[in-house]
Write a structure and sequence with these properties.
130 residues, mainly beta, 3-stranded antiparallel β-sheet, YmaF family protein, YmaF
């Protein structure tokens, strides 16, 4: 089964961990339906006397079908360090009147003078279903 996909690719000029030239691929449609993203933000749990803010945008996913989104961001610098947040959202939750959002949760990467991680959870901003 073939699924028509459209998008564009660009080179950031960066190299991967093996020193290879890389490109980013951005999908604009999947099976002739547009893709969409969600913004997300929040505050981590308090650990070792501090917490971190975070904000980001999910990876694109197809509209109009059941789906999840991958996400990744870096927290604010607090107590002299920051953490990576990475995961996959839950499935879409319908919003009355149209649209949907996704729940997400997890733990950050380990960092800090006293190595630790933080918990986080929340939901994405809503998106209009096409």
């Amino acid at each position: 089964m073939e699924i028509p996909v459209s998008g564009f690719m660009y080179s950031s000029g960066s190299l991967d961990s093996n020193g290879e030239h890389t490109h980013q691929l951005y999908l604009t449609s999947w099976n002739r339906q547009p893709v969409h993203v969600h913004e997300f933000s929040g505050v981590t749990s308090v650990n070792v006397g501090h917490r971190h803010d975070y904000v980001g945008t999910t990876e694109p996913a197809p509209s109009g079908v059941e789906h999840t989104h991958e996400y990744m961001t870096i927290t604010s610098v607090d107590a002299g360090h920051r953490h990576e947040i990475r995961g996959i959202t839950g499935p879409g939750v319908r919003i009355p009147g149209g649209g949907h959002f996704h729940y997400f949760e997890g733990v950050t990467s380990v960092n800090g003078d006293t190595p630790h991680r933080h918990a986080y959870r929340g939901n994405t901003e809503g998106a209009i279903d096409v």
